[in-house]
Amino acid sequence: MTVPATAAAPGLESSMLARAARIMYCFTAATPELTLTDMARRTGLPSSSVHRILDQLVQLRALERAGSRYRLGLGLLELGALAAQQNRLREAASPHLHRLHAATRVPVHLAIPDGHEIIYLEKVGGPPAGGAPTRLGGRQPAYCTGAGKAMLAFADEEEVAGVLGAGLAPRTPATITDPQAFRRELAGIRERGIALDREENHRGVVCVATPLRDGLGRPVAAISLCGAPGRLNPQALTPPLLMAARDVRRALSARRG
């Protein structure tokens, strides 16, 4: 079997990434283990190139080597499990996010933590006034966003210390940059269950957010509502936001059950 070259932009076929992908796609349920010769034959790549790429993939834990044979590594399995978990979260949350948007008529976001940043896993509704960069798959700092602060409030101390150690660079004049003030902010969020972004990340945009936590109390995601100052009323939006979060948690529990 020969693995066909990927149909893509000019130059991609010969890139290191494309060649590595062609090698990994050689593995199938029927052939979970292959030799270097097998992969060179299937991909049509020179054996020297395949050998060099295989060494790098093994170091990255994308592949494992047992003697002269290779198989997919634990690194890929871990990524696959993470992708499946995120897909379950998005699918479980989606109907409740749409219901929340219909009830509030403001943009709704579902964000997950990734180091010192958050990633927007889902977005319902158009851009809030002010044009905040909240595209699907986009990243923003955790310390100055409503969703990020909602998750940091319930994160491990090591994670919070890491964020503080990296510095609280001012994104706007409203960004909380003092470590002690930031810790007080997180303490308040733990008491209320609600985090506010008061134009701390993007001027002209405010947000109200609440975390989604697992059975051990660890934050796995957050739901936020964003809009223009003076038009978005956090107090009025808190009840429907908390109700949506409760419904998402129930949906996730039902899926796990």
Account of the 3D structure:
This protein is of the alpha+beta class and 257 residues long. It folds into 2 domains: 16-72, Arc Repressor Mutant, subunit A (Orthogonal Bundle); 83-256, Beta-Lactamase, CATH 3.30.450. The chain is 45% helix and 19% strand. It contains 8 helices and 9 strands. The protein has helices spanning 16-24, 36-43, 47-59, 74-104, 146-152, 157-166, 179-192, 234-256; strands spanning 34-35, 63-66, 69-72, 108-114, 117-124, 139-141, 195-198, 206-213, 219-227. Strands 6-5-4-9-8-7 form a 6-stranded antiparallel beta sheet, sandwiched between helices. A hairpin with a 7-residue loop joins strand 7 and strand 8 (206-213). The protein is elongated, with a radius of gyration of 23 Å. The two termini are 41 Å apart. The model is unreliable at 1-13 (pLDDT under 50).
Task: Briefly note the CATH topology name of the largest domain.
Answer: Beta-Lactamase
**Overall pLDDT confidence:** 88
Helical residue percent band: 40-55%
Q: Please give the CATH class of the largest domain.
A: Alpha Beta
Order of helices and strands: HEHHEEHEEEHHHEEEH
CATH hierarchy: architecture of the largest domain: 2-Layer Sandwich
How does the helix and strand content classify structurally?
A: alpha+beta
* Overall domain count: 2
State the distance separating the first and last CA atoms: 41 Å
Given as residue ranges, the uncertain stretches (5+ residues, pLDDT < 50) are 1-13
